[in-house]
Amino acid sequence: MRRPELIARSVAAAGVCCIPFAVVLVTAWLWRDVVFGEIATQWQNDEVSTVAPTWTVLLLPLCGTLICAGVAVVTATELDPLHSRKAYFFAFGIGVMLAIIWLTVLVPNVLAPDDPSAPALMLLSPLGLLLGFIPAAIASLGASRHPTLEQATPQGEA
Asked: How many CA atoms lie within 13 Å of 157's alpha carbon, on the beta-carbon side?
């Protein structure tokens, strides 16, 4: 049986992992007039070289962050916090990376729709994976200090 504080930590970690999906969803709704149009998706020498419908650019981050949030929620209900740290790490890290990619492509098109600049910050998006330590730490805080019932009973007494 899992302890209530460990369950609360799992729920908090899963909630944190849902943040990238919420960010992508909210920004797509706030800038829906841009989402229903076309945006620059590739640049060459700071000039726009490719334009695509925005929904195609939105599809990967939206679906990817939704899958990451779903993995975190399923992990919170199925695994104990000590063994679920890797799932939270990758779910939040990949979700943040996809949200950064979405924002770095969308923001230049929103700010300067006629001549958007090349998003140099997109090169930093893999660093978003490091933020996966946040929900992993939330889930594992106290997990080793509070043994489960199976670990607390001596071998000969059960």
From this structure: 6
Q: At what angle are helices 4-17 and 19-30 packed, to 10 degrees?
A: 30
pLDDT of residue 147: 52
What's this model's pTM, rounded to 2 decimal places? 0.77
Q: Answer whether residue 156 is part of any domain.
A: no
Is residue 79 one of the residues assigned to a domain? yes
Identify any residues that bridge with 46 across adjacent strands, giving them in sequence order.
none
Q: Are 27 and 39 in contact (CB under 8 A)?
A: no
pLDDT tens digits for 51-60?
A: 888 888 889 9
Provide the domain count of the chain: 1
- The closest alpha carbon to 17, from 132, 104, 129, belongs to 132
Q: How far apart are CA 63 and CA 104, in angstroms?
A: 17
Domain that holds residue 89: 4-140
